[in-house]
Amino acid sequence: MEQRPKIGVLAVQGNFREHAAMLRRLGAEPVEVRKPSQLEGLDGLIVPGGESTTFMRLMRLYGLDEALGRFAGPVLGTCAGMIVLDRAHLGLVDLEVDRNAYGRQVASFEADLDLVSNKLLQANGGAGPLRGVFIRAPRVREAGPGVEVLAELDGEPVLLRQGRFIVASFHPELTDDTRVHELFLDLVREETGVRT
Ligand code: GLN
């Protein structure tokens, strides 16, 4: 891998610009992905938040659904991106997820998350709670045995990892806390080392 990892950000819809800005800030090179050929040569991929039904429709239209299934690198899915990767959609992460499941009254909110894994604390040498921005967020109903919980809200998983996949039900790209993206870039470095 080059010194600056090349990270694709799925840019068919949703807040891909904020992810790109975060990646740039951390020294990675963001690449906007709108068609399958743009996945070639990437070291990792982010599927951002947005609207998962629109996402799925546009991804099918451009053949990105199948291309994502073939993509072999690390993937970070946030909010709608988590839904897109779950059992009921692309089936890449062993999760059952309920859309918009935090209720109508408090559909969007911010909260401090409990870090279950200390990997996040190690990233960036950062201490302190992770602030989660939830916007009509999905709720994890069930996680398969291969899924590791990294952070929780009120005892429910909101940040998880399954092998080369990291998924968050919140929006790490909307805060100044870079730890989730750093954790992802660490994974990218590890995986690229293994593949080469
Ligand atoms: N509610 C959206 C969905 O179901 C997800 C919201 C988001 O990504 N901020 O797809």
Q: Which secondary structure elements does this structure contain, and how are they paired or packed?
A:
Elements: E1 6-10, H1 16-25, E2 29-33, E3 44-47, H2 52-62, H3 64-70, E4 75-78, H4 80-85, E5 95-98, E6 108-115, H5 119-122, E7 130-135, E8 139-143, E9 148-153, E10 156-162, E11 165-168, H6 179-195
| Uncertain ranges | none
C-alpha end-to-end distance: 8 Å
Count of beta strands: 11
What average pLDDT do the residues reach?
A: 92
Shape, please?
globular
Q: Ions, cofactors, ligands: which are bound?
A: glutamine
Work out the radius of gyration.
Answer: 15 Å
Strand-pairing-aware structural class: alpha/beta
Helix fraction, binned, reads 25-40%
What is the string of helix and strand elements? Answer: EHEEHHEHEEHEEEEEH
Largest sheet: 9 strands, mixed
Number of helices: 6
Q: In percent, how much strand structure appears in the residues?
A: 25-35%
- Please state how the strands of the largest beta sheet are arranged side by side: 2-1-3-4-11-10-9-6-7
